[in-house]
Design brief:
The complex is a heterodimer. By secondary structure, chain A is an all-alpha fold. Helices cover about 75% and strands about 0% of the residues of chain A. Chain A is globular, with a radius of gyration of 21 Å. Chain B is an all-alpha fold. Helices cover about 80% and strands about 0% of the residues of chain B. The chains are: A mainly alpha, B mainly alpha.
Chain lengths: ~170, ~100
């Protein structure tokens, strides 16, 4: 019962935050409401007994990535006059909703036909650092190394791009 | 039970898609992409719980690493574009137009 109430609260918060991100005009307000979505998603991971993913969602997503985005938004010092003119965005919302709604309804119908949504109680170690680490370093070693190379390349590329000086100005 | 999580993930994904196709602010578009990645993560973790295997958790970790790399690169590109064009409108960024 408690888990049902918590799921409802977290899912309402997540959808509200996502709607705020899409609807609010200033990116700073959008980022703040997106952080609500990220934190309630972390709560949902905890309900799914994914302990490591819960911690990493809070630390990496809501912590590192969002503070990077907020830092850049503040660094560019965006005022009202820098925002693009989005006075016609309600038409785009209507058009996009017309396109997306059939797909969403179809997917929801498919998902609700899936068999076996009931879960068993899992062991104490499910989702802990030790168990996920075993799976990660035994079955997923090559993708893990490829991801580390990807992170290195992305960071070098970001430094090269952002540190570029204007020679010809 | 798990089906509710999957339905929530579909709703979040569609909201992110709506943000990508209907907004013009480059930061909002970028965060909508992050929202879609998060919806995919929720699906991975929910299905891992259903099948009681932890491969989904590892895949969620990979998605988060890719999202971090994407954030670092995309924000550098946004800074460069803002320096060149002085604007945040995605309609202005049409460098590839012939």
């Amino acid at each position: 019962m408690v888990s049902t109430i918590l799921f409802s609260a977290f899912s309402v918060l997540a959808v509200a935050g996502a709607a705020g991100l899409v609807l609010l005009r200033h990116p700073m307000n959008g980022a703040m409401s997106f952080i609500i979505t990220l934190i309630s998603l972390a709560g949902l991971y905890a309900l799914l007994s994914a302990k490591l993913i819960f911690a990493i969602q809070l630390i990496v997503y809501a912590g590192a990535i969002m503070s990077l985005i907020l830092f850049i938004i503040m660094f560019l010092n965006i005022g009202e006059k820098d925002l693009p003119d989005e006075s016609s965005r309600w038409y785009y919302f209507a058009g996009g909703a017309v396109v997306i709604a059939p797909m969403a309804l179809f997917l929801l119908k498919v998902v609700n036909r899936l068999p076996g949504g009931d879960t068993q109680i899992v062991g104490n170690g499910f989702g802990s650092v030790k168990e996920v680490g075993k799976v990660l370093f035994r079955d997923w070693l090559l993708p893990f190394e490829i991801v580390s190379i990807l992170l290195l390349v992305a960071l070098v590329g970001a430094v090269v791009l952002a540190g570029k000086r204007e020679e010809r100005a | 039970m798990i089906l509710n999580y999957l339905s929530l993930s579909i709703i979040l994904f569609c909201l992110g898609l709506l943000g990508v196709i209907s907004r013009r602010n480059v930061f909002t578009v970028f965060m909508s992409i992050e929202l879609m990645l998060n919806a995919a993560n929720l699906t991975f973790v929910a299905l891992a719980r259903l099948h009681e295997s932890m491969d989904g958790h590892v895949l969620a970790l990979m998605v988060m690493a890719v999202a971090a790399a994407e954030a670092a690169l995309a924000l550098a590109v946004v800074i460069l574009l803002h320096k060149h064009k002085g604007n945040l409108d995605t309609n202005v960024f049409s460098l590839l137009r012939g």
